[in-house]
Amino acid sequence: MRKIDVSTEVFAKIWAQRIAGEESEDEILKRLLGVKASDNSQAAKTSKGNSIINSALWRQDVRQGLENLGGSGHLKDIYQAVRDIRRKHGRSIPPNFEAIVRRELEQNSADAGAYLGKRNWFRSVDGIGSGIWAVREESDQ
Q: Where are the domains of the chain?
């Protein structure tokens, strides 16, 4: 996958066009530009035939970050854990990075008002606003 640099203003405009279910800049731009998803949209092939997995969804990076912290942590630690994951895999770290992490926590937690009703992956440990989040155990779902 190629990377492009865009200004904060352009990045914000891309995300302003997001519709429910779109989880990455690539998905938003594909819809806006009329690009059809390929049959092999989860992987691209290099010239040597090796499979390269496209960048993970933000929510997956947030979940992995929490798991790397032992399953729970304060927002400042979650930010750093997710930042480390994204750097390690060559993924973007936009200026509104922290807001994206909070969005993923809230949209994927039944504890939050922003919950999308699909994945109940996270829970607020001491109530919304405490800044402490955890991976929801399967028995909690």
A: 1-54, 57-141
Class of domain 57-141 (CATH, top level): mainly alpha
Compute the distance between CA of residue 27 and CA of residue 90 in angstroms, rounded to an integer.
18
- Give the tens place of pLDDT for each residue, 10-20: 888 888 888 77
Q: How far, in Å, CA of 110 to CA of 120, rounded?
A: 6
Q: How does the average pLDDT of the chain come out, rounded?
A: 81
The closest alpha carbon to 82, from 106, 107, 57, belongs to 57
Q: Could you tell me if 106 and 119 are in contact, meaning their C-beta atoms sit under 8 angstroms apart?
A: no
- Return the number of other C-beta atoms located less than 10 Å from residue 114's C-beta: 13
- The residues pairing with 72 across neighbouring beta strands, listed in sequence order, are 134
Laid out side by side, the sheet with 72-74 consists of 72-74, 132-135, 122-124
Reported as a single tens digit per residue, the pLDDT across 39-62 is 444 333 333 333 333 346 899 999
